[in-house]
Design brief:
Blueprint lengths: L28 H19 L2 H15 L4 E5 H7 L4 H5 L5 E4 L3 E4 L7 E5 L2 E2 L20 E7 L13 E7 L7 E11 L6 E3 L19 H10 L12 H10 L7 E3 L4 E13 L5 E26 L6 E27 L3 E24 L8 E26 L6 E28 L5 E6 L6 E26 L2 E26 L13 H4 L2 H4 L14 E3 L6 E19 L3 E18 L11 H6 L2 E15 L4 E12 L11 E2 L6 E3 L7 E13 L5 E12 L2 E7 L5 E7 L2 E14 L10 E15 L8 H10 L11 E2 L7 E10 L5 E10 L2 E4 L8 E3 L4 E11 L2 E8 L5 E6 L2 E7 L3 E9 L1
Parallel strand pairs: 4-7, 26-30
Antiparallel strand pairs: 1-6, 2-3, 4-5, 6-7, 8-11, 8-42, 9-10, 11-12, 12-13, 12-41, 13-14, 14-15, 15-16, 16-17, 16-18, 18-19, 19-20, 19-21, 21-22, 22-23, 23-24, 24-27, 25-26, 27-28, 28-31, 29-30, 31-32, 32-33, 32-34, 34-35, 35-38, 36-37, 37-40, 38-39, 39-42, 40-41
Helix pairs in contact: 1-2
Length: about 900
């Protein structure tokens, strides 16, 4: 079983260093034109109308794309008042936002979409999802968001719903220096929450070591190996006391009133032109925000009682108090020579901290007796997510070679990390007398209950490089460009979860009384021998860490493409070609608390995922006039399992809090995509488009619910047999001058997507891929049957709607927008044992944003969010599987350009 870690580098054809990576595409000739358009966007916004300037420039870029895409510019994002990329993207046609972080494109889950930063793939700091969480990207660094919905050969072949490309701000066209600040409040924060002391550096978004795994425990784990936290029988009481004292016990919690939200930002940039017409420029931007939220949450678990009397056998009703600290920094420097050669270096650091404490009622059908013996539960999670990226890219136009040769290249390195020290959960018993008065409260003495503490760490690293080259050919009635390119991307991951517990029965009863941890685990109590149920305290500790809680994983992608883009008689545009990709991936579990592989070398070699594919794509555009065009696209793409998908290690889904595990035998999903779209671009930026889309999927990757060994709900990542998705999208923008000339300063924009989907799991076929994966995961312990073998795709909404009513004053000093967003019901947790699927209900978001420009340099913004005061709800069988209050947010900000 013991293997040197370096042997992983020699397994099969996969030669990977478990070190860093980043990813993907490049600037093409179209991108060169796009960059010049981006400069136009900045100037139009400064001097023209705020409504039409951005809309016209963005629509022009979309019109010139060979493949179906939707684009949102920086000013459009500012107008809706969205603070990050995730919130902004929910305004794009056919996109829905899940968990505040992840985008579903055309109803397909986040695994069916890919995310790029300036055309390059970036690693994810979220261990539960395959794509980078988009709330990491503040809107202050975003120039535009490009969502391409039809596949082109110069894009990654991992393509389902679409590709999201976050394009950050580049070097400015002139000197820029601006500062901004703002404050906000939420209606839910008028109530007090419960919180704890934390570390002295929490305001920076970093833990100062208060929550870190104590060094004495780390050394004990390293020395004991698979014996774990319990240690051996020779441990003395003094050693037990020393270990227990090393934990952070400065945890109440105590009553907490929320502080107002605030944010700060600054941007500095300039551009220098030299005598030889070369240009050197830079842009630096920083931002910081600190936000508090107090919400009410309800969480159901383990549905039972049969179809006649469904009920959750476990549920929680609690108050959640959360602090979020976000900061970012970006520094770009670029050099241009004669407008034909440009090199740019983009450096970026994004950091996000979430510190949440939940406290409230916990009901267990097998233990609770209302009014006699009840329970409460408190849990804490503190996590830091960070992404650091450096991207170097260049574009070169060699106009004196043939008809011109255009070459662009890129290289990037990134790392993403997640640190979650001291995730904690503790349960209390509450006893009442006959009159209903609380008689006694203590930490839960029920058999098998513990105070749990977990220490999690994840490090993703990635490297990427590639290039594109193209050359045009001209003739009578035709204009053809031939493009070719190469992409390389590799990513490695190291993840660790240490799961420790303090057994309640290891503490004598008289010391368990109370509901504040700093009282129960005071230094005085810990140092008192009577605190312990045994003379040495040997029964106090338990180690729940298992094989695979520590794992290393790696993936590598090598790709090349060839495509042709041709204009015929200025009426027809034909674009297409093929992409070749070779993909390799492996995930290797370790024995707990060691550097030993939990599998033999041959087993590891057999587990290597190795596929190569050729992916064709064809797009046809008929240009009826300067204003109107028709598009058709057909392509073949695929969705590959992620590193987490092929791991057998359990993790907690943040939306349902179910346990989730992967399947080592997962295979890729193959998709055929068809898109048809009609676009009409009118004067003054008015436009309308209608699109039809269809996707046929073989072996779709889905989440399927099971009951675990003790009835705990679990989600298995597995392959279904087949699936399909189809629908229609409508998008429009128009001023209201057609009603009356007095309404010309008003505009209305919006989009609507109506679609349907169906997936067949194959649970009734013992020879299906799903059944094989279920047997591998659970063997003979499967105790539940899937309710709906045929159903909609998990996460798919049958409709998505956005609507915006905007106004600009005649003098340009005022603007306002009323913005609406909503989505239809979507499956979150597939049902079992005859119970229906867990459904997330529609969330109707209505926001109002008012902006005042008192002078050319100053911007004042007032924002009201969730005016309807909607709550987020997930239901199953008419019961609340999850409910979270959101509240109405009010914020104001001021920015000044020097």
């Amino acid at each position: 079983m013991k293997n040197n870690q370096s042997s992983i580098f020699k397994l099969g054809s996969l030669t990977l260093a478990i070190s860093s990576i980043l990813g993907s595409s490049l600037l093409s000739t179209a991108a060169i034109a796009q960059q010049s358009e981006d400069e136009v966007i900045e100037e139009v916004v400064a001097t023209g109308t705020r409504l039409k300037g951005t809309a016209t420039a963005v629509m022009q870029e979309r019109q010139n794309q060979a493949f179906v895409a939707d684009i949102m510019g920086a000013d459009q994002i500012a107008r809706t008042g969205d603070g990050d990329a995730a919130a902004a993207l929910r305004r794009v046609t056919g996109l829905t936002l899940v968990d505040g972080k992840f985008i579903y494109v055309r109803g397909l889950g986040e695994r069916y979409s890919s995310t790029q930063l300036n055309g390059m793939t970036v690693p994810s700091p979220d261990p539960t999802r395959s794509v980078v969480p988009l709330d990491l990207f503040p809107s202050s660094i975003i120039e535009s968001l490009n969502v391409q919905k039809s596949f082109s050969p110069n894009m990654p072949g991992h393509f389902g719903g679409g590709n999201v490309n976050i394009r950050t701000k580049s070097i400015p066209t002139e000197f820029v220096f601006s500062v901004s600040g703002g404050a906000g409040w939420n209606s839910e924060n008028s109530n007090d929450g419960f919180f704890y002391e934390g570390g002295s550096d929490d305001w920076t978004g970093r833990d100062d070591g208060t929550r870190a795994l104590p060094s004495i425990i780390a050394s004990n784990l390293a020395a004991s190996g698979s014996d774990g936290f319990e240690g051996d029988s020779s441990r003395t009481l003094a050693q037990t006391q020393e270990i227990l004292n090393s934990f952070n016990w400065d945890i109440g919690p105590e009553s907490k009133s929320a502080e107002p939200d605030f944010n700060l930002g600054a941007t500095l940039g300039n551009r220098y032109t030299f005598d030889d017409d070369s240009v050197l420029g830079f842009l630096a931007t920083v931002s910081y925000s600190n936000e508090w939220s107090i919400t009410e949450e309800q969480l159901g678990n383990d549905i039972g009682g049969g179809q006649d009397n469904p009920r959750f056998t476990k549920y929680r009703d609690m108050i959640s108090t959360e602090q979020n600290v976000r900061w970012s920094g970006m520094f770009n420097v670029g050099y241009e020579l004669n407008s034909n050669h440009k090199i740019e270096l983009v450096n970026m650091m994004l950091h996000d901290m979430r510190d949440r404490l939940r406290d409230g009622e916990y009901f267990d059908d097998s233990e609770s007796t209302i009014g006699v013996e009840e329970f409460s539960r408190m849990d804490i999670i503190f996590e830091e997510r960070e992404m650091v990226s450096s991207q170097l890219k260049g574009t070169h136009n060699f106009l004196d070679i043939a008809n011109g040769v255009f070459f662009d290249w890129y290289a990037g390195t990134s790392r993403a990390s997640r640190e979650a020290p001291d995730i904690m959960e503790v349960t209390y018993q509450l006893f009442y007398d006959d009159a209903g008065a609380l008689e006694l409260e203590r930490i839960d003495d029920t058999s098998g209950t513990n105070l749990n503490r977990q220490y999690q760490s994840l490090q993703d690293e990635s490297d990427t490089y590639g290039f594109n080259i193209s050359t045009p050919f001209y003739g009578d009635g035709y204009d053809i460009e031939i493009k070719a390119g190469f992409d390389y991307y590799e990513k490695t991951r190291d993840a660790v979860n240490i799961d420790l517990a303090i057994r309640h029965f290891g503490i004598n009863d008289e010391f368990k009384v109370g509901n504040r941890l700093y009282d129960i685990f005071s230094e005085e109590n810990i140092n008192n021998p009577d605190f312990y149920a045994s003379s040495t305290g040997s029964s106090l500790f338990q180690d729940n860490t298992g094989e695979g809680d520590k794992y290393s994983a790696a993936s590598k992608l090598t790709a090349g493409y060839l495509m042709v883009d041709a204009f015929i008689d200025k009426k027809w545009r034909l674009s297409g070609g093929a992409r070749w990709e070779e993909f390799q991936q492996i995930s290797v579990p370790f024995v707990e608390h060691s550097n030993e592989f939990a599998a033999e070398t041959d087993e590891i070699a057999d587990s290597i995922y190795n596929e190569d594919d050729i992916l064709p794509s064809f797009a046809l555009t008929y240009i009826a006039s300067d204003e109107m065009q028709y598009r058709f696209n057909i392509s073949q793409t695929l969705i590959r399992p992620d590193l987490r998908d092929i791991s057998t290690t359990f993790f907690i889904d943040p939306l349902t809090e179910f346990l989730v595990r992967g399947s080592p035998s997962l295979v890729e999903t193959e998709l055929m995509n068809i898109d048809v779209r009609w676009e009409w671009y009118m004067s003054q930026g008015n436009n309308v488009s209608v699109a039809l889309f269809y996707k046929d999927m073989e072996n779709p990757i889905e989440m399927v619910q099971f009951d675990g060994g003790e009835g705990v709900p679990q989600l298995l990542t597995a392959n279904g047999e087949e699936g399909e998705l189809y629908g229609v999208e409508v998008e429009f923008l128009h001023d209201l001058s057609f009603i009356s000339d007095s309404m010309s300063n008003f505009f209305i924009s919006g989009n609507m997507t109506i679609s349907d989907s169906e997936v067949t799991i194959g649970s009734g076929d013992q020879d299906s891929l799903f059944s094989q994966q279920a047997r591998e995961a659970y063997g003979g312990t499967i105790t539940a049957t899937i309710t709906n073998d045929q159903r909609r795709l998990v996460g798919h909404s049958e409709w998505v709607a956005n609507l915006q009513l905007g106004w600009d004053s005649d003098n340009g000093e005022h603007s306002a927008s009323l913005v609406y967003n909503s989505f239809g019901e979507r499956i979150i947790a597939p049902g079992v044992r005859g119970f229906e699927d867990g459904i997330e209900n529609p969330f109707h978001s209505l926001d109002f944003v008012y902006t005042y420009y008192p002078d050319f340099n100053t911007t004042v913004k007032l924002k009201f969010q969730n005016i309807l005061n909607e709550d987020k709800e997930i239901e199953q069988e008419g019961l609340l599987l999850r409910r979270e209050t959101v509240g109405t947010g009010i914020s104001a900000s001021v920015s000044y350009d020097f």
